[in-house]
């Protein structure tokens, strides 16, 4: 049986956003620290936080969709 495509709810989206945006900020900061090995200047932690605000939106949508899929799969009755 194929599961329907889950659409994340707004409550789930806005509940996950602070955590996902924080994860994006940390990963972005660490990514630029790694890029220093090839000559790219590192960004400040505040710049990483500011960049994570818009970049956190698609990441949050993906995370919310994944969580909604897990919820739908858990609620599915076995045949």
Explain what this protein looks like in three dimensions.
It is a single chain. The protein has helices spanning 10-35, 45-75. With 79 residues, it is mainly α. It is elongated, with a radius of gyration of 17 Å.
SSE blueprint:
Blueprint: H1 10-35, H2 45-75
Helix pairs in contact: 1-2
Count the E strands. 0
Total of DSSP H or I helical runs spanning 4+ residues = 2
Outline type? elongated
Residue runs with pLDDT of under 50 for 5 or more positions = none
What oligomeric state is this? single chain
Can you write the helix and strand succession as a string? HH
Structural class: mainly alpha
Distance between the termini: 9 Å
Approximately what portion of the residues adopt beta-strand conformation?
A: under 5%
Mean pLDDT reading: 90
Helix fraction? over 70%
Largest beta-sheet characterization: none
What is the CA-atom radius of gyration, in angstroms? 17 Å
